Amino acid sequence: MFDWNDYFALAKKLKRQTILVEACLRSSISRAYYAAYNIAFKYSLSGNLRPVFGPTGSGEDHKYLSDYYKSIGRTRGNDDLLEVGNLLRGLYRRREKCDYNDTIKGNITDLTRRSILDAQKIINITTV
User: Fold this and answer.
1) What is the sign, positive or negative, of the torsion defined by CA atoms of 116, 117, 118, 120?
2) From 60, 65, 102, 124, which residue has the greatest number of CB atoms within 10 Å?
3) In order along the chain (128 residues), what is the average pLDDT of each group of 10 residues?
4) Which pLDDT value is given to residue 48?
5) How many angstroms from the chain centroid is the CA of residue 76?
6) Domains of the chain listed by start with CATH number
């Protein structure tokens, strides 16, 4: 079984590359997102949270998962779970920009650093 933490390790390594810098930084943001998303996704199905997340198997699950964590966080008064939902949404938006836009507004290095930090928070909260 694939260990999604490996994507996070790759994201941190890509951030430090000195060749193809922008491509590596964009890829770092993408890998950080997918590591955090999949770890949070697995956690949502693990039985640690009720109700368990009900994935649809569509691309909409990215939005639904962040909404799920925000809803669970609000319902339980759990700021950590609410933060997971908010961070997932922000990471998703950054990942989309990096994967689909020719130009990125803002400093790509700062966006990468923020993405790594956000992914680490998500992973820390949702790792069993």
Assistant:
1) positive
2) 65
3) 91 91 96 97 87 85 95 95 97 95 92 97 93
4) 80
5) 22
6) 5-51+58-126 (1.20.120)
CA distance 107 to 30: 16
Q: What pLDDT score was predicted for residue 57?
A: 86
Distances from the Cα of 56 to the Cαs of 49, 53, 81, 109, 112, in angstroms? 18, 10, 21, 34, 29
Report how far apart the first and last C-alpha atoms of the chain are (Å, whole number): 16
CA 72-5-47 angle, 5° bins: 35
DSSP string, 16-80: T--SSHHHHHHHHHHHHHHHHHHHHHHHHHTTSSSSPP---SSTTHHHHHHHHHHHHHHHHT-HH
